[in-house]
Amino acid sequence: MIQLIKVNKHFGPLHVLVDIDLTVKAGEKLVVIGPSGSGKSTLIRCINLLERPTSGTVIVDGVDVTAPRAPLTKVRQSIGMVFQQFNLYPHKTVLENVTLAPILVKGVPREEAEATGLQFLERVGLKHKAHAYPSQLSGGQQQRVAIARALNMRPKIMLFDEPTSALDPEMVQEVLDVMISLSQDGITMVVVTHEMGFAREVADRVIFMDGGQILEEGPPEHFFESPTHERTKLFLSRIL
Ligand code: ADP
Ligand code: MG
């Protein structure tokens, strides 16, 4: 579903991704961990070309998105993204937030977008807030709306970049629960997170990044029971 081949990213003198090779299979749940500044966000932003790699190839669902004239708009529609900041439109209701992109970008008829939107709001436990405004919701609720909004584009891939990092502690679990439920659907998920309980429960594979490289990868048990690299051990000892 996703393949990165020798991907490099430079920001001026900074070499932020170094020869990244990574394959994510359809339906796979990949968790990305690593210290701040190690390139995790840049890595996942290269998947939907929010960042363009300086060199290397990114293939998404069979399409080389790094090729000149790649059908980026179409590929991006198949990739949902959830950020640390929820970025809901403050002057639109929850349901409007969830239906806007399918209607405007994909040309889905309003009635249909609203019907599926309500289903996804129900899925994240917020159907009863369909006509509320974002400011009337808690952070955890806003993030669940952001997930429903991404889902209403019917993506094949969901990218999550530290989706719970901006939340008050008591709201983290409600968002993780939605993500856990989503993981049972067969959708391909790439999740940057420091929530190791989530990684343990959901991940098929965990990668540890440091200095723009994938230093270590394996099933979650490997990470928690027998990490190989000193830097992985040190990182885990700090966050666990
Ligand atoms: P992480 O998500 O692991 O914290 P990032 O991918 O956000 O790491 O950042 C990796 C490095 O790239 C950091 O040193 C960061 O300051 C730098 N960086 C990220 N985005 C930009 C940008 N748009 N311009 C310049 N430097 C950037
Ligand atoms: Mg980041």
From TrEMBL:
Pfam families: ABC_tran
Xref: InterPro entries: AAA+_ATPase (IPR003593), ABC_ATPase_HisP-typ (IPR030679), ABC_transporter-like_ATP-bd (IPR003439), ABC_transporter-like_CS (IPR017871), MetN_ABC_transporter-like (IPR050086), P-loop_NTPase (IPR027417)
Residues in ABC transporter domain copies: 2-236
Domain of life, per lineage: Bacteria
Signal sequence extent: none
Membership in a protein family: Belongs to the ABC transporter superfamily.
Protein name: Amino acid ABC transporter ATP-binding protein
Source organism of this protein record: Symbiobacterium thermophilum (strain DSM 24528 / JCM 14929 / IAM 14863 / T)
